Amino acid sequence: MNKRMIAYVLGILLLCEAGLLLLPVAVSLIYSESTLISFLLTIGILCAAGIILIHFKPKDKTIFAKDGLFVVALGWIFLSLFGALPFFISREIPNYLDALFETVSGFTTTGASILSDVEALSKALLFWRSFTHWIGGMGVLVFVMAVLPLAGGGGDLHLMRAESPGPSVSKLVPRSNKTARILYGIYLVMTIAQIVLLLVGGMPLFDSITISFGTAGTGGFGILNNSIGGYNTFCQAVITVFMTLFGINFNVYFLILIKNFKGAFKSEELWGYLGIMGAAILAITLNIRNHFDSIFEALHHAAFQVSSVMTTTGYSTTDFDKWPEFSKTVLIMVMCIGACAGSTGGGFKVSRVLLLLKYAKKTIHSYVHPRSIKVITFDGQRVANETFQGTMAFFIVYVIIFAVSVLIVSADKHDLVTDFSGVVATFNNIGPGLGKVGPTGNFGSYGVLSKIVFIIDMLLGRLEIFPLICLFTPSLHIKHFRKKL
Amino acid sequence: MNIIVVGIGKVGYTVAEQLSQEMHDVTIIDTDEDVINDTLQDIDVIGVIGNGATSKTLTDAGISDCDLLIALTGSDELNILSCLLAKQLGAGSTIARVRNPEYSNDLRLIKDSLGLTIAVNPEREAAAEMQRILKFPTARNVDIFGHGKVDLLSFHINRSCNLCDKSVKDAFSRIKTKALICAVERGDDVFIPTGDFVIKEHDTIAVLTPEKTAPDFFKQIGFRTTHIKNIMIIGGGKIAVYLAKSLSHLNVNATIVEKDLDTALNLSYNLPNINVVHGDGTNRSLLLEEGMKKADAFCCLTGIDEENIVLSLFAKSVNPNIKTITKVNHTLFREVIKTLDIDSVVYPKFTTASIILKHVRSKTSRDGVSGVEKLTRIINNKVEAIEFQVSPESRLANCTVQDLTLRPNILLGSITRDGEVIIPRGSDTLMPGDSVVVVTSTERLTSLDDILTKD
Predict the structure, then answer these.
(1) Set of chain A residues whose Cβ sits within 8 Å of the Cβ of B65
(2) Is the pTM of the predicted complex or chain greater than 0.95?
(3) Among residues B365, B370, B363, B332, which one has the least CA distance to residue B349?
(4) How many domains in chain B?
(5) Domain finish residue from B76, B99, B120
(6) Interface check B177 vs A, CB under 8 A
(7) pLDDT (0 to 100) of residue A169
(8) Does residue B162 sit within a domain?
(9) Does residue B24 lie in a domain region?
(10) Which of B4, B44, B60 would best serve as a mutation to test chain A binding (most A beta carbons within 10 A)?
């Protein structure tokens, strides 16, 4: 393993985070808040650590697949550990573990909170909390890559592959850093569009920026205690549309950008995603129509809630925990399916669901016609066997981690719905679940061990499980072990 | 530039890698999915799976925005077809690899009538390189500039050489012929030497010298120059045919050993002046019987690298004075091969890659006037020697050499003016129309003006 290169990339990553922290610094200057010191202190610590790590300037810049996984996993852990410092230093979240939970929840675009009173936080910290969503949504290393080429050759691709959500990562253009730039360009433009539309809808500037950050990253940190419930219907509708948009594979936008509309609308995942979403909205609207004055209001809230949990954003306009059981079950199901691969959303991903369904269909077909040969295609392309194996392995590991997490968390004295939906909500990077961790509740009542489990679940969910697992796989460290023995 | 490379074999991979390193946007096309996936792991390019001679695949690869298509599949016909189609679909220019000796005479016709920008023939280029080496057997590698007027010779320094343990300034004060050391390789490092640089044993040095006085130069630094009279070639492939044809003008006795009877018969028919032997080139007694001990030069051109290397080592052990030339296809282990005592090694892959690179560089040149005339890579591909034409608009035109502030690791090697070769001193002036050879170990030059510092 290329340890120097890993240290070097991590150093750059920390310096980058220091740079990004300048934005909340500006916010605290504007509102002349006392949090300024805590941000400056964090920047100082980050710069020191970053410069030390950069000191290992590597001669050999090659990054192999395993180095890529390693860098991404360690990078996200480091970012979260340091990113939690402003909350902790300013004493607004006095417990470091709680601060870490909040930060991990931010970077992984989960949006789960341990705070019962969000409005008590200072503006700069609220801004930083939402900004972590925006950074985490598209990925930090992708951001670094857009700014400067890291490894060159195939190395950048390994990093991108390890960080991007979805079963397969393809470049849009030949160069990795141009691909990263295009992705961030689309991301930025869409975020700005949403900010402008929210301003038009009469939302204050600070609110529209932070809410847009949360939507773009499919995060879900609100800045009011009732999430999005306090804003007008127009703003809620805008957020609904943008949540849906940010849950779509960014390749589709790129294809539209280069005017390849045929290719863009050929995407099976896009139609699968919109189809599932539409069906869920319809089912819930019919189910909850008696809870609201008109069917349109029911549709409005159903659409908002479904797109919110399916894209794994986690905003809420109303307390859906009070909805009928059928609606809640539908919500839990779309929570697990999640958004499209290559979007900023989390979850199991629509494309994986579609792949598994196709595979199941093929297997059933082969029971009836044992000798038949059938090639499975996705978006008109042949799907390699390895892709199926990968998807299946992912599914198995997903279920195991899920079960283990629920088991550990259930040691705290909560009800099963709360524990189960809490793990669903953190592992799929959604945010609120049902019961005590529903839209009006929070994760503050859980114990230390459970919080750690939730933190790990959030990271596992965002990084698509494998990078983090590989970090703790003995075979990577075998030499080290042997030396000790 | 947007570049599409069709066919990712050994040459295709090298070219794609080099172009990607020079910050071009490269798209690769191959029919083999595994090849594409493996390549994407290693180099920063994008891949399309499919036949590069169909409009669907080419459109998928973005042919309409492409500035250059390079067709390097194993089949000449496919390459030409691919280029033809690319041209119709809007590609800027096209390069095809055409290597069948039967087509070699028609290359010009193919180029002109089909609108190909250039057609590369790696085997012929490799044969030309070997022929140059055979003219100067003392050198490890020979490259020519200024339409054959200037030689760039790389050779190994040993005890018997006059340059050994002397500084560049000292050594050259005693040498009467015009010559300039432009690069020195020591271990894994490469230096562009200054006057105080001391040359040591085991260095490999590259010297620019006028072609006419090159033999004289070797004599003065204490190398024995020999003439090749008897040459043995193992393997009767395409390179051997081209090499034998070019040798027929040089009045040497050549023997080709070929394993396949039909191929041997064809060789004998096409090359009546050459002694063709049907037999296994790895057969020890056959080699000795056919006069390996008497031969002055021994070229190993079989399709198997390991065989070539072992045969060259064997030839050296039997006859220490023999000049061996070894063809090696794989470039991965050249650090190891470098340490072997087998004189010259020719990598056809690199030869092809530098021709294509030259073309790409001259197209990317910023001002579009002072294009690259010729580009070669010497000393294990670590140093580039590039020939530029000085255009009247160039910042260097009508400047004296001592007024130029060159970027580090760049050396102004030689000037060719009206067929006259000048090794530049401080007082020399660059005139428009001159051909200038620039040697660099770090920069990737696309224009002559790039050698100056930015301000």
Answers:
(1) none
(2) no
(3) B332
(4) 3
(5) B120
(6) no
(7) 60
(8) no
(9) yes
(10) B44
